[in-house]
Amino acid sequence: MQTAILEAPRRFAVQSMEPPAPGEGEILLRVRGCGVCGSDMGPWKGIQGLSYPMPPGAPGHEVFGTVEAVGPGVSGLAAGAPVTALTYRAYAEYDVARAAEVVPLPAVLAGRTVLGEPVACAVNVARRAGVREGDVVVLLGTGFLGALLLQLLRAPGAPRPSRVIAVSRRRLSPEMAERLAIDESLTYEEDVHGRVGMATAGRMADVVIEATGRQRPLDLGAELTRVRGRLIVAGYHQDGTRTVNMQLWNWRGLDVINAHERDPEIYRRGMEEGVALLAAGGLDLAPLITHTFPLAEINRAFGMAEERPEGFLKSVVLPEDDG
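Now predict its structure.
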């Protein structure tokens, strides 16, 4: 098989090697595609504590594909079945996954791009956010995760916020804002405090979700959260320490939630819920996948994800023999 190896910061090499073999309770997954996650950008740029080269296929984990073979002790999964899964070396033509961390895809999703891991992440963040009927919600960061969260805020059966305000580096296009059902799209350079204050009669937002992984939006998030409101940290902060205005957090009595799940069982449930929403039309990934690249061009995929040009939301790496 072909696999990408991150040999050094900002340098993948694509090499040939034997496919892995599934062990007890595992499947061999034929990868149809793997999304480039924001958390992958740390290894790509080079962060303290990592050593290179990384294992073949790492750190790819936003994977979908088909079951190629099953290991001993696996039931309920058969060769050829379309699935999404939690795996961690998926920048390759094949990867191994624990059967307990594989979610079959219904027929309506077969042949479509289904990035189960980030969908599970978004579902779990939305659950931890605890949005109630009539809340004013502010989302900081309208990348791929943020766009998923905006869809989930309006998903069938979800409590309906009275107003959703999105804040990002660039104002969303009117078409995308309408698609994501945003009431107001702002940039960080605008009077965000004033707009949120105006929308809430000065109380500020009931729920603020920070989905950037950066210091400035984290600070802004606390400032926009009302007394006894909820500040949800969904961004992946991987480039060093952060400071917080503890006086403000104390004074307002904020509930601060770190919405990153680490329990594989909860992750799987989130993936199952997300797949069900995708199948029912409550979530739509198609407009959010803006760039695709063959495995041979994985460095371009990561470069695009780092540069984030106008209109970019998500890069997906596809095996070259994906037919």
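The chain has a mean pLDDT of 95.
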